[in-house]
Amino acid sequence: MLNAQGSGADLLKVPAGGSASPGGWNMVPRDNYFIRMSGGEIYQYAVRTMSEDTLEALRRAKLTNDDIALYVPHQANIRIIEAVARRLDVPMDKMVVNIERMGNTSAASVPLALCEAVAEGRIRPGDNLVFAVFGSGLTSGAAVVRWGWDA
């Protein structure tokens, strides 16, 4: 079970490997070198941490949901994005979503979603954006960014 600090060896693990169970061709058929994931618990963890990290980023920036033009979340799966939106009380039209076309592109999901939103004209200079992520190693974070550039 995941503890409060976020270390959850039982949520995401590879049973074999290392000095306790060294690799070898005879071990591969046992499927012990594949990642094991407690999907439901990881889903709950992702929703909670992405929501909490976003709220903390907004608090530190002294902004509210009303100040944010778009949210650009990690594109792990649509259920996580929808649950984070509900938890934050943010309408889905303020969430950038491209997972149905791109899939989960890991660390590239936020930059790809951002590029699509810019290309579609959904982001303008001066807009406040929130990037919220969750990734391997049970890491998470969020950042508030004011979009702009010098011409």
Please provide a brief summary of the model:
By secondary structure, this protein is of the alpha+beta class. It folds into two domains: 1-37, no CATH class; 39-146, Peroxisomal Thiolase, Chain A, domain 1 (3-Layer(aba) Sandwich), CATH 3.40.47.10.
Q: Domains counted in the coordinates: how many?
A: 2
User: Would you tell me which CATH topology of the largest domain applies?
Assistant: Peroxisomal Thiolase, Chain A, domain 1
How large, in whole angstroms, is the Cα Rg?
A: 18 Å
Count of DSSP E strands?
5
Q: N- to C-terminal separation? A: 51 Å
Poorly predicted tracts of residues: 1-8
CATH superfamily of the largest domain: Thiolase/Chalcone synthase
The percentage helix is 25-40%
Mean pLDDT: 86
Largest sheet: 3 strands, mixed
Order of helices and strands: EEHEHHHEE
The best one-word shape is elongated
* CATH arch. level architecture of the largest domain: 3-Layer(aba) Sandwich
Helix count equals 4
